[in-house]
Design a protein that fits this description.
- By secondary structure, the chain is mainly alpha-helical.
- Helices cover 57% and strands 2% of the residues.
- It has 30 helices and 4 strands.
- It has helices at residues 4-11, 32-36, 45-48, 73-80, 83-89, 98-102, 122-127, 131-139, 141-147, 156-160, 173-185, 188-193, 200-206, 208-214, 223-227, 247-252, 260-263, 280-321, 331-355, 360-364, 369-396, 398-407, 411-424, 439-463, 465-468, 474-505, 515-518, 523-529, 534-537, 543-550; strands at residues 17-19, 25-27, 324-327, 520-522.
- The chain has a two-stranded antiparallel sheet with strand order 1-2. It has a two-stranded antiparallel ribbon with strand order 3-4.
- Helix 21 (369-396) packs across helix 22.
- The longest helix has 42 residues, at 280-321.
């Protein structure tokens, strides 16, 4: 190992120099005191200059650039993908390397005021290669803020990144606005501290330019298109690109032929906060907005009320003309169905509000997470209690036991399913004749049983996770959460696609199958859907007879319940 003293015999001489490839004389002097004060003070010369041997300099082999990647692998890998690293890879030796930014032997922590990477000296460091850019930044609002000692003010590396330096010249408008400028101008803390407008990012992305950028336009103006790149000045500075007398030229870069009237248009406009200003245009805009809001509410409100009244009238007429005489659900079954349906809907709404707290459905329930959580738990308890009651009903009531027998799968269900496929696809003209419940109702009923058990079990595991993890590993809760979430999606889609069709959108029952309301269906529907059901073949002729059949066990049955 070569000792430092051996190196300093030559490099301790202040007059030691060499001429580089560019013909410029550079000093080879190394001050031992400077090295002792750097972050590499514990390193030896040979630790970094590992390519040199004890024969140096007599072997006339010049020292190669230090391979910083030996100790700083991640930083070097990132640097390799930067504008500087890519340029060096193409043979542009003048591109900045590690030592150009960090220093050679006098490397200091970036937080040290003497470091070339200290926020107050970054413009000077980068300006060694980017002289005009450094001058522009110095005159800008950002440069003046840095000079005043405000660390929050953006420096070169805040916008261009640190090791993976990006040029940003060919970057998309969306990246510049969303990933560069928004880092500071979307910050409530910074906007409040420095008395900056709080809505500049929000209103930009709501403007034409912002919307176009979000949808992939590479030509739409971004923040820098109007405010400038490095020499960003206040709007009241005559040299600013957004000063009133410069707006025509600025807008004209993208809109050839722009006039003063065109340039008066505002980009950062929040329609919800427009007030009646002193300018005629602002006053007109204020009144037009309010007139339209009143017009929209009044017009659409009238249409909505009118059509709801028409719809209610027609539904009432269809209900009276439906000839609902066949009993499908008795009062107990209708109450069970109502409890199950309401608790399921409440679970779906509150559950997805908990999963997606920023969604519109969550905002409708308010910002209180505790309310959403307990609403979900209460609805879950109601669902489980309804399930327990239904189980007791199946075991203790004759109607329940008959219901269970009628819901049990049979060989005929498979034949009915095959026959339905042939009938619906046009391969057969014969529609399968089904009894009290067909394969569709049975599939849905047993899906309810399975879904209620699965959602209840996983929901309790999630709710009482502290107790569960006393005897189960933590991943069991994570698995339960996954099952709970995806089973909820499956259940909701099944209700919308399958159950809602049969009880709402089927033309034979639209706008609703009234069995869930009064327990009855029409004789035509019963004969069409369940011709082998004895209740349909012996349908009552009077209301009294219908009530008698409702308690006979065979004549009272439940519509398939929604899957939980």
């Amino acid at each position: 190992m070569i000792k430092n003293s051996a190196c300093l015999e030559c490099h301790g001489d202040k007059t030691l120099t060499k001429t580089n490839a560019a013909g410029r004389e550079v000093s080879l002097f190394m001050d031992a005191a400077i090295l002792a004060g750097s972050v590499h003070k514990t390193n030896t010369c040979a630790a970094c200059h590992a390519d040199l041997t004890a024969k140096h300099p007599d072997d006339n082999v010049a020292a190669r650039p230090v391979a910083c990647s030996k100790c700083h692998e991640k930083q070097s890998e990132t640097y390799g993908a930067s504008a500087h690293g890519l340029a060096q890879a193409k043979g542009q030796q003048a591109a900045a390397g590690c030592a150009d930014c960090h220093g050679a032997h006098n490397i200091l922590p970036p937080g040290s005021p003497a470091s070339p990477l200290h926020f107050s000296r970054l413009a000077e460091t980068c300006g060694a290669c980017h002289d005009q850019v450094a001058k522009d930044v110095e005159q800008s609002v950002h440069g003046k803020a840095v000079a005043a000692g405000h660390r929050e003010a953006p420096t070169c590396t805040d916008c261009h990144s640190e090791h993976q330096i990006q040029t940003l010249k060919s970057t998309s408008p969306l990246k510049i606005s969303a990933d560069v400028c928004s880092n500071c101008h979307a910050s409530e803390r910074l906007n409040t501290k420095y008395n900056l407008p709080p809505d500049r990012v929000k209103t930009f992305f709501e403007s034409y330019h912002g919307l176009a950028a979000q949808y992939g336009s590479t030509l739409a103006a971004n923040c820098a298109s109007c405010h400038g790149v490095h020499k960003i000045l206040p709007s009241n500075d005559p040299a600013s690109t957004i000063y009133k007398t410069n707006l025509v030229e600025t807008c004209g870069k993208c809109h050839p032929g722009a006039t003063e009237n065109f340039a008066q248009s505002k980009v950062h406009v929040d329609a919800s906060s427009i007030v009646a200003g002193t300018k005629p245009g602002e006053q007109i805009n204020w009144w037009v907005r309010r007139v339209y809001l009143v017009l929209i509410v009044a017009t659409i409100g009238f249409m909505l009320v009118h059509n709801l009244l028409v719809f209610a009238k027609k539904v009432s007429a269809r209900y009276r003309a439906a000839n609902l005489v066949v009993v499908r659900m008795d009062l107990s079954q209708r109450l069970q169905h109502f409890t199950l349906a309401t608790s399921f809907i409440a679970l779906a709404i509150t559950g997805f509000a908990l999963k997606f707290p920023d969604s519109p459905i969550a905002r409708l329930l308010g910002a209180n997470e505790m309310f959403r959580g307990w609403s979900h738990r209460v609805a879950g308890i109601v669902l489980l209690l309804a399930g327990v009651y239904h189980l007791i009903y199946l075991l203790t009531r004759e109607e329940g036991r008959q219901l269970l027998r009628d819901f049990l799968p049979s060989k005929k269900d498979l034949a009915d399913l095959t026959g339905s496929v042939r009938y619906l696809s046009g391969l057969s003209q014969d529609k399968p004749r089904m009894g009290r419940f067909g394969y569709a109702e049975k599939m849905e009923y047993w899906a309810v049983i399975w879904g209620t058990f699965l959602m209840g079990a996983t929901g309790l595991v999630i709710w009482f996770k502290m107790d569960v993890t006393r005897f189960l590993p933590r991943w069991a809760v994570d698995v339960a959460l996954t099952i709970h979430y995806y089973e909820a999606i499956l259940a909701c889609l099944a209700i919308v696609v399958w159950h809602f069709y049969h009880v709402i959108f089927d033309p034979d029952v639209y706008p609703i199958n009234w069995a869930c309301w009064n327990g009855k269906v029409s004789k035509h529907w019963q004969e069409e859907e369940h011709p082998l059901d004895p209740a349909g073949r012996a349908s009552p002729q009077t209301g009294a007879e219908a009530n008698t059949r409702a308690t006979s066990g065979r004549g009272s049955s439940s519509q398939p319940l929604p899957k939980a």
